[in-house]
Amino acid sequence: MQKIAETNLRTVLIAEDDPTSRHLLRVTLEKWDFEVQVCCDGHEAWQQLQCDDAPQLALLDWMMPGVDGAEICRRLRRLPHKQGRYVILLTAKDQKQDLAEGLDSGADDYIVKPFDPRELKARLQVGIRMLLMQQALAARVSELEEALTQVKLLRGLLPICSYCKNIRNDNNYWQQIETYVSAHSDAQFSHSICPPCYERVVKPELESYQRLLSDPLNPVCSAD
Predict the structure, then answer these.
(1) Considering the domain 2-148 in this protein, what is its CATH number?
(2) Would you tell me how many other CB atoms lie within 10 Å of the CB of residue 99?
(3) Backbone angles phi, psi at 109, to 5 degrees
(4) What is the pLDDT of residues 155-212, one digit of tens each?
(5) What distances in angstroms separate CA 16 from CA 64, 65, 74, 123, 179, one per listed residue?
(6) Is this prediction's pTM over 0.70?
(7) Range(s) for CATH 3.40.50.2300 in the chain?
(8) Which of 135, 192, 103, 101 lies closest to 4, judged by CA?
């Protein structure tokens, strides 16, 4: 499953208005066996990223006409169903306040131009690992939610007989309480005798049986 998921993460969206930088990025990524979708400005990138089948990895130039990379990040983070995106900002800005501003906008990472190909590849690999972890977590949450829907709970009023303690089910049949509870929950029964019932029922019966055995007129005793 992980190999399939990673294969789906081999597509990268590039948004870069400079033709030279755009070409260099595309050639570099294709050399690493990535599929590349190219956008020439922020408007086009924003339209592409809103699609359901948009790449989960994106390299966005910060300074672009129309909509810049930081604004695209802010818009993406306001879309709850589009959280599965890993966005790296590309920019010539290299001050700490610029880094903070870019990350505050919602970018996942930040690369200063001109970029080092080795650094770019390493950061893309980090993005893939992060997205795989998100997918695994989402799958686990889905499994737990499905498991919770399978848990059977007893709720509401139970019509129970005052004498025999049988319970009426939804089909208007009367069942023993053990049968009913087992059918509506994961509980299993292990029978025992509580102290009050032992004193009230079992002990008198044992004493009666002992007296019967000690009676010389009892045919069982006579046979012995």
Answers:
(1) 3.40.50.2300
(2) 16
(3) -155, 180
(4) 666 788 877 777 887 788 788 877 777 777 766 767 777 888 878 887 888 878 777 7
(5) 7, 10, 18, 18, 68
(6) no
(7) 2-148
(8) 135
